[in-house]
Amino acid sequence: MKKKVIILLSLCVLGFSIYFFSSKAIYRLHKRKCKNTFLDYISKEKYNQSVDNIPTWMVDQINNEFKFYENAKISQDALEETFFTIQIRRFYEKDSFIRYRIIDNEIFAYLPEEKIFSKRQFTFERALKTLTKITKLPDIDIIYSDEDGTPLFDRPESFYEMIEQKFQAPLLSRAKLKNNDYVILIPDYHDLSHANPMQIKNFLKLNESDLWENKISKVFWRGTNRRKARYLLAKLSYKNPDVVDAGFLENIYEKNYELDDPGMDVSHLEKPYASIQEHLKYKYQPVLDGFFCTYPGYKWRLLSNSICFKQESDQIQWFYGALHPYEHYIPIKNDMSDISQKIIWAQKNDDKCKKISQSATDFVIKNLQIENVYAYLFHLLKKYETIQAFDKNDLIKDTVDNPRWISIQNRKKAHLILKRKGYNIY
Question: Is 317 in contact with 290 (CB distance < 8 Å)?
């Protein structure tokens, strides 16, 4: 009997050991697969459903993005000319523009002339790697811009335009000027990362306690003095504190007010920091441009169970075209000249505003979940493939023949190869 008990205990220990170590091995394999990706935050089933059921507005948005290239497809010469022109014009911070290739679901990057290579992985790169783990990506050659918007407001609209249209390759960017045909909008780093599902989950929980009926019927905003409109809103708050509570956490960019009010003591426009949760106590949430479009500021305000007062602007992101005035937000003029009237309208139409707020939240839940975002990016890359004036064989040949291309699917391996070639990995 004692011998049987010992054998039974030994078998139990053995079974537990096998379970423990096999589970640990499976976990390590999973973590290795998920490394440098966002796989842990995406449901493959929901992603596939989103790919198969992409909404009409996304299809229209993608088609509209590529109108410029329907009759003049992207050539290798155009990609070369555009990329190298950017390197010349952007002598500083030129590493904000990366040229990627995807061949047989493997990601390659173009090496800079200087023998240096950044360890930094842009969120977009991790997003591409995420897609390679859950689907087959098209074979493409792209230029990615990591600027907050392309081009940023301190550069002319034509800053990245080529002299000859045939040498104009598209730039993939998270924000652009509305009529900029050669910039292709992609989801921003927030929408593509783990921050997306966390934000939606947290706001839906907050909305359970921050009911519309309990909110204060007042405009509330905090930020930095990056644009004239922000200054004008803060000044309105100073003069009308009963309806607007807005101000700067710090005062910069004096040009925003020195021509308007040269003698203004701008210290009156400073306001203490307010958390997002403090913002949610108020019904009216302005959406104002900063360096470029405000993100993730617009999205969390759409989710907030409050109502967006969206500034008219020529700056857009990928989902803006699906949102409509008085259905998802209240429009206000770029110069803030009508915001007082819009506040009065909102106060007189509280029930309508509540419906607009709910419609905005519903839009985010149905369209901007992380699986929806990745489905959009996948379809956009598929569309990109169709407007290339070259095929996979061209990409393979050029990538093999040109030593400046390196596979970054495995960054650790890539860094070792580059170190042996004398590159400084920083």
Answer: no
Token couple for 78: 């155009």
Q: Which residues of the chain have pLDDT under 50?
A: 22-33, 258-259
Q: What is the pLDDT of residues 140-160, one digit of tens each?
A: 999 999 999 999 877 888 889
Q: How far apart are CA 150 and CA 384, in angstroms?
A: 18
What is the distance between the terminal CA atoms of the chain, rounded to a whole angstrom? Answer: 66
Q: Would you give the distance in Å from CA 199 to the centre of its chain?
A: 13
**Region for residue 336 given its phi and psi (left: phi exceeds 0; alpha: psi -120 to 50; beta: otherwise):** left
Between CA 234 and CA 22 the distance in angstroms is 60
Which residue ranges make up each domain of the chain?
Answer: 47-189+372-425, 195-370
pLDDT of residue 26: 37
Contact present, 105 and 137 (Cβ < 8 Å): yes
Greatest C-alpha distance within the chain: 98
Quote the CA–CA distance of 229 and 344 in Å, as a whole number. 19
- Can you tell me the distance from the alpha carbon of 167 to that of 188, in angstroms, rounded to the nearest whole number? 26
For the 195-370 domain, the top CATH level (class) is: alpha beta
Provide the residue type at 53 as one letter.
N
3-state secondary structure of 218: strand
Question: 76: which strand partners?
Answer: none
